[in-house]
Design a protein that fits this description.
The structure holds 2 protein chains of 2 kinds. In chain A, the strands form 2 sheets. In chain A, strands 1, 4, 5, 8, 9, 10, 12 and 13 form an 8-stranded mixed sheet that branches. In chain A, strands 3-2-11-6-7 form a 5-stranded mixed sheet. In chain A, strand 12 and strand 13 (about 295) form a beta hairpin. Helix content of chain A is about 20%, strand content about 20%. Chain A has a single domain (about 15-310), classed as Sulfite Oxidase, Chain A, domain 2 (Alpha-Beta Complex). Chain A is α+β, with helices and mostly antiparallel strands. Chain B has one domain (about 45-70, about 85-205). Chain B is about 85% helix and about 0% strand. Chain B has helices at about 5-10, 15-40, 45-75, 85-105, 110-120, 125-140, 145-150, 150-160, 160-175, 180-205. Chain B is globular and about 50 Å long. Classes of the chains: A alpha+beta, B mainly alpha. The interface of A and B includes residues 75, 88 and 90 of A.
């Protein structure tokens, strides 16, 4: 039996900031930030490059967004991965993990924003509150896990770069390093891997930039040192090893959509009503369980996110 | 045609039996391996998927081995190869049964509604299921008695295996998400095995 028990901590639709309020606030922020930007911007890029090791994993806050479900064992989470840059078989990313060079790491921010630039990882996430969030992960291949991520909320990080009014979408790109990454030697996907979100999706409080899991630094095979986690979307939206973020006015192209537009939509919200053309999405196998589970709309996060898609035909905008 | 030492070897009744038992044992290894993995906890994060893929891979491999018997016999002149063909074919059927059991029992756990949906909606499962159905009459008519009873109709019936081979490769091809290298290799092998037959047939006509 599936019961959605609403916790006091769940975000109700009524609690979600109204869009107009949110935009007003952003205008205010932009105005005030333009004053401080000049003094702040140089300090951001002058931060010493110290790599990713200095995130303090002993001081991780808890999050109200965590779900109360049994987590998938660490071994399974780190040995069963789709990360084609490190190989196509699910065991390959762990085997080839050392080929991903994560130190030093920087993220390029560009496009429709006031503060583009290249930021080292530390600076990039430093204003964020590092916390643990236990999320469901539903792969488009109809298996799922429950993973205790460590990360920072995406929205506040993005706001710091002051997206302009033209910023309707955000595009993310994975590292391109065909000399080292064995999977990028063959054109299975159009490299670099890229993903995209609508700006309101990116600003949603559930959207997470993860830097670790199980209280530890992110294993390379899981997308070190910085990856997206969008718990209400199929796993491939949660792009790994991010090196570039671009605010765009037009909907950006996304890797799986380029490869199979009939099979992988831009939104790719978890939806048991819309089957993948080649397999059913009604049920899923939770890794470690024998019987399949019913797949939940928006992967069980409908209360939090469904309102963003109100009025949209989700069968067309799959 | 000159008689090779290998032919002498497989021709003697005792050696023939020995080779047959050895082959039988070898063909059981793909069954033993996942059982060993089960007991050593080495089936991976998604054991059902591992078993599904493994049994499917071996069903296809043994099917191709079966199809390799006739071309090998013609190419090498070792006519005694033919005595292993029935066993190979039945092993192929055995691994197909393992594969489909793994799907029905482990993957779907007898959810016949979901299975029915899969068979009618998903082309790769339609293909897989069709090839299973086509294999049944071949397995049923594999006994010596049936061969004698059906005579030339047996030969015609068993040509179905060429179609089955093609449908099975399609089943694999349509299943993979993006990397078609593996099904392409099997398609290549199948093309060679069937192409040789076509070549031989045309040559004889001329």
């Amino acid at each position: 039996m599936l019961l959605k028990v609403s916790k006091s901590s769940d975000v109700k639709e009524s609690q979600v900031t109204d869009e107009s309020l949110y935009r007003d606030r952003r205008r205010f922020l932009q105005a005030s930030a333009s004053l401080t930007a000049m003094s702040l911007a140089p300090s951001l890029s002058m931060w010493p490059a110290i790599g990713s090791a200095s995130i303090d994993f002993n001081k991780i806050g808890k999050s109200d967004f965590s779900i109360d479900e049994e987590t998938t064992p660490y071994d399974a989470v780190t040995s069963y991965n789709n990360f084609y840059e490190l190989g196509l078989d699910k065991g390959d990313p762990k085997r080839n993990a050392q080929h991903l060079k994560v130190k030093p790491w920087s993220v390029k921010v560009e496009g429709e924003c006031e503060k583009p630039g290249e930021y080292n990882l530390e600076d990039f996430i430093s204003p964020g509150k590092v916390e643990e969030r236990i999320y469901r992960l539903r792969c488009v291949e109809a298996w799922s896990m429950v993973i205790p991520w460590v990360g920072v909320e995406l929205g506040p990080i993005l706001k710091r770069f002051q997206p302009t009014s033209k910023a309707k979408f955000v595009q993310f790109k994975t590292i391109l390093d065909p000399d080292n990454l064995p999977g990028q030697k063959r054109p299975v996907l159009e490299w670099p891997y890229r993903e995209g979100l609508r700006i309101d999706e990116a600003m949603h409080p559930l959207a997470l930039l993860a830097v670790g899991l199980y209280g530890k630094e992110m294993p390379n095979q899981n997308g070190a040192p910085l990856r997206l986690v969008m718990p209400w979307k199929y796993g491939f939206k949660s792009i790994k090893s991010i090196v570039s973020i671009e605010f765009t006015e037009e909907q950006p192209a996304t890797s799986w959509n380029i490869t199979g537009p009939r099979e992988y939509g831009f939104y790719s919200n978890v939806n048991p009503e819309v089957d993948h053309p080649r397999w059913s999405q009604k049920r899923e196998r939770r890794i470690g369980e024998f019987l399949k589970r019913e797949t939940l709309p928006f992967n069980g996060y409908a209360d939090e996110v469904a309102s963003m898609y109100a009025g949209m035909d989700l069968k067309k905008n799959f | 045609m000159s008689t090779s030492s290998a032919e002498v070897f497989v021709s003697t009744p005792f050696a023939g039996k020995f080779v047959k038992s050895a082959l039988f044992t070898l063909l059981l290894i793909p069954l033993a391996i996942p059982i060993y993995w089960f007991y050593t906890n080495a089936l991976g994060a998604n054991p059902i998927e591992t078993i599904n893929r493994w049994t499917g891979d071996w069903a296809l491999r043994v099917l191709l081995l079966t199809l390799a018997v006739s071309p090998l016999r013609r190419l090498t002149g070792w006519n005694n190869f033919i005595q292993y063909r029935r066993m190979l074919g039945l092993f192929a059927f055995f691994y197909v049964c393992m594969h489909i059991s793994s799907y029905i029992i482990l993957d779907q756990f007898f959810d016949f509604g979901a299975i029915f949906d899969d068979v009618i909606k998903r082309p790769f499962i339609t293909a897989g299921f069709t090839s299973f159905l086509m294999l049944i009459p071949l397995a049923v008519t594999s006994t010596k008695k049936m061969v004698e009873r059906l005579q030339h109709r047996w030969i015609i019936l068993h040509r179905l295996i060429y179609i089955i081979g093609m449908v099975v490769v399609l089943h694999f091809w349509w299943m993979v998400k993006i990397d078609t290298r593996e099904p392409a290799i099997y398609a290549g092998i199948l093309a060679v095995l069937l192409g040789y037959r076509l070549f031989y047939y045309i040559k004889r006509k001329i």
